[in-house]
Amino acid sequence: MDVKREVVRLAPSILAADFARLGEQVAESENAGADRIHVDVMDGHFVPNLSMGAPVVASLRRVTRLPLEIHMMVSAPDLFLDEFVEAGSDSFLVHWEGNTNLHRTVQRIRALGKRAGVAINPATPAVVLEEILQDVGQVLVMTVDPGFGHQHFLHSTLHKIQRVRQMIGQIKPECELGVDGGIDRDTAPLTVAAGANVLVAGTAIFGENDSVETAMNRLRASATRQEQQPHAA
Ligand code: DX5
Ligand code: ZN
Fold first, then answer.
1. N or C: which end of the chain has fewer CB within 10 A?
2. Which of the residues are catalytic?
3. Which atom of ligand 1 is nearest to the CA of 146?
């Protein structure tokens, strides 16, 4: 397997942040080298939880230059795209599950001038990506069932990450491969070895006793070590 890939990108998920200090925590992650901010949007229907909407994005837009990546865990993402774009979003991750018109959703995102990515849940096979891959800039493999932070990483998703990496290599090599859920210093290296190059992490960045910077450095170091291992051998 080709293990020489570009640097792994960190996408802090603010779901685990202290919302009373959100701006501060986002600034800390920006200073610590975050590549983007991952915003989890939940509607209580697509997933059994509620989180945040476009006003949060508008507030974040005023305090960070980082791209704002919106993970749409909602039943009808098309209904919300305009207001999230208006609020200052840069990219959208939309789920394959439950979207009978995924191609249309992806094209709408692109027509709005934003980057589109497709997320797949743990029980969804990689093969569903085959016809949409050429239209997206990122695949997000969910490594937990979406809806909550602080869940255990599902090791059964590792094989799928490898399969998606192969498909990306064949169909669209520049497409990013993100992983989301239960990513920490132990699981990050496994996902990077399997082919991930974007790590979404909430608890491992905002939920530690250490500073955001220390937590991010630790996560980055764990992923980098794994990347370099084959070269050192
Ligand atoms: C889960 C969300 C994740 C979540 C990850 O539905 O999509 O982005 O914030 O949280 P951790 O890193 O705590 O597993
Ligand atoms: Zn997410």
1. C
2. 40, 180
3. 6
